[in-house]
Amino acid sequence: MPRQATDIRSSAAVGSEVARKHDSFIKKIVRNPKTSFALAILLADAILVSLIISYVPYTKIDWDAYMSQVSGFLGGERDYSKLKGDTGPLVYPAGFLYIYSAIQYVTGGQVYPAQVLFGLLYMVNLGMVLFIYLKTDVLPLWALCLLSLSKRVHSIFVLRLFNDCFATTLFHASLISFLYQKWHLGLIIFSGAVSVKMNVLLFAPPLLLLLMKAMDISGVISAGLGAALVQILLGLPFLLTHPVEYLSKAFNLGRVFIHFWSVNFKFVPEPVFVSKGFALFLLAAHLILLATFAHYRWCRHEGGLCSLLHSKLVQMKLKISCLSSFALRPFNNHNSNPRVLRTEHIATTMFVGNFIGIVFARSLHYQFYSWYFYSLPYLLWRTPFPTWLRLILFVIVEFCWNVFPSNDYSSILLLGAHLTILAGLWLAPPEYPYVEGTNQKTANIEKKSS
Q: What does the mean pLDDT of the chain come to?
């Protein structure tokens, strides 16, 4: 009997503790105005999405093609060159097929239930984006509402049902992992996003730089292998049967998009637009600007990009030498302590790196706006511009993406806005990348455990 009474008291104490923590969590939300405002934005946008699905006509673009490609896959076809729809052959990696196969199973291939599903996806994605903004704390409270004010992005999600929506959502999930220094988990999710659509690779160069800052070479390699393993496992049914067709179709980096549908560089004559010379020029500009930002902005506190690479090379040599020298092991352990990156530095590096790729992309179709819209307020508030100019640039970009069909003037205006934002990001003072004292804390933990 006394034992039963003890168990009852113990259970009551546990229940009381859970209730206390729950009340504390609710109070924390209520007391934090930004969190409360973010929840209000989610609620308002949920109502807006419901109204859009109910009253705005669905626009048929790629849905039937997606369903045809999925039907071929479910019917047993493993040759990527034979998986086609009414808009052409399948050009996305295998993750796309698995996701849309599941959607076809759940919705029966019907548009309305798919719209409801994409509405839920939109809300999940917006929730994660708001969490990223709260975590980095870059925007003022009122500016968070900009994240739900895009007519084009609402259309991309619930009126067009593009696979860009899944790629974007998975990327934001991976970014949250990176903000919590969960690099291996984040790389796995990031690879999942790439398996839906290759545009996510625009984030790869800044991500590699962050990995080198946060981990030693062995950590970077192991994280990269994990990401590669995801691609291999997802593509295995096709790699085992028709590997050349799969790799050439799903990872075709040389695709030339149709000039008519492009939102950017529409002012460039079509013969120039589709030429290899123009593509190489944009690629060179992209890579040069990435290297410039990496050297003078993202790695400024490490002495530049070359200095960071040299330090990693020295660290790798020390690690190799330690394999044959027991005496140097303590020294190696001390110098390979992980450094914790600040959340603002992670988000800024990722968003700016992707934005550079957007600026110099040869073709941006309307659904591609989802690739960077959610980073746009963040980027604007990292510039030294006054608030009125930030808002004007935001409105200009949104306006250009809603001109249909795009024309020379809207295309030039969009490029001008992009270049202005890029100039502002260049003029912004570089932020210190590391959380203070992380190396010392790690060393103290290791000393206590030894």
A: 86
Q: Would you state the structure tokens that stand for residue 384, as one six-digit string?
A: 């030294």
Highest mean pLDDT among 24-28, 57-61, 80-84, 151-155: 151-155
Q: Global pTM?
A: 0.88
Domain ranges of the chain: 32-449
Residue 325 binned pLDDT confidence (cut-offs 50, 70, 90): low
User: CA of 96: how far to CAs of 92, 221, 246, 375, 417, in Å?
Assistant: 6, 26, 13, 23, 32
Per-residue DSSP letters for 211-239? HHHHS-HHHHHHHHHHHHHHHHHHHHHHH
**121 φ/ψ angles, rounded to the nearest 5 degrees:** -60, -45
* 296 DSSP 8-state letter: I
Q: Say which residue the tokens 């968070």 belong to.
A: 144
Name 57's Cβ contacts closer than 8 Å, sequence gap at least 6: 159
Q: 36 and 30 in contact (C-beta within 8 Å)?
A: yes
Residue 313's alpha-carbon distances to 105, 308, 317, 333, in angstroms, are 50, 9, 6, 16
Amino acid at 413: L
